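Q: Given only this backbone (214 positions), what sequence would you predict?
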């Protein structure tokens, strides 16, 4: 079947980030720096943020699938961290800088140039606020036909429903799609549906493997 669509993950693919395959994962270097800034023992802020995530999830609130709003998460931060309002503002700026990482310029250019021959989409396990922050930095909506964020659709990879939704919105069959991700689990889930899924290792390998499908 002819390939009609190419879909990329964002974190770890178009953005070079520490652990973007899990948007709620701890950012060890960031939290270590803030431990020193707040005169906390090493690892203390990391522990508190994990406790915050666990408490919210017990309440059925998860920012990765949109059951917790950004406002709710921000409202819980002062109680969890004992930061002042000024410290929280600075921490949030640092948080989004780490989350959004640095642009993978080579792969962004390659992805941009796939249109108009192919439909393109970005499919990301995300966190509330991600669309705003990534749009400010990278203007992803200018280089693709579609962006699907897990926090906006209420499901996340490797849930097969999010791959089916992507196919539906692009009006393609799974066999007509190429998908690039840096998570082996997500790649395996996409392949189970018949999608041509490629595990990202580096730019040269990813581009060569995509071109082989195209």
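A: Predicted residues:
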């Amino acid at each position: 079947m002819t390939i009609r669509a190419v879909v990329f993950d964002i974190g770890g693919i178009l953005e070079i980030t520490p652990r973007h395959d899990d948007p709620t994962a701890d950012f060890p270097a960031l939290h270590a720096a803030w431990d020193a800034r707040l005169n906390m023992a090493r690892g203390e802020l990391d522990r508190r943020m994990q406790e915050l995530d666990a408490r919210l999830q017990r309440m059925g609130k998860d920012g990765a699938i949109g059951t917790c709003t950004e406002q709710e998460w921000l409202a819980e931060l002062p109680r969890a961290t004992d930061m002042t309002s000024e410290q929280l503002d600075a921490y949030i700026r640092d948080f989004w800088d780490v989350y959004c990482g640095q642009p993978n310029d080579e792969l962004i250019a390659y992805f941009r140039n796939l249109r108009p021959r192919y439909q393109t989409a970005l499919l990301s396990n995300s966190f509330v606020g991600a669309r705003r922050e990534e749009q400010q930095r990278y203007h992803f909506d200018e280089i693709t036909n579609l962006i699907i964020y897990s926090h906006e659709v209420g499901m996340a990879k490797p849930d097969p429903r999010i791959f089916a939704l992507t196919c539906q919105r692009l009006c393609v069959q799974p066999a007509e799609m190429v998908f690039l991700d840096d998570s082996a689990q997500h790649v395996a889930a996409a392949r189970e549906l018949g999608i041509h899924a490629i595990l990202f290792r580096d730019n040269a390998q990813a581009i060569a493997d995509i071109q082989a499908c195209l």
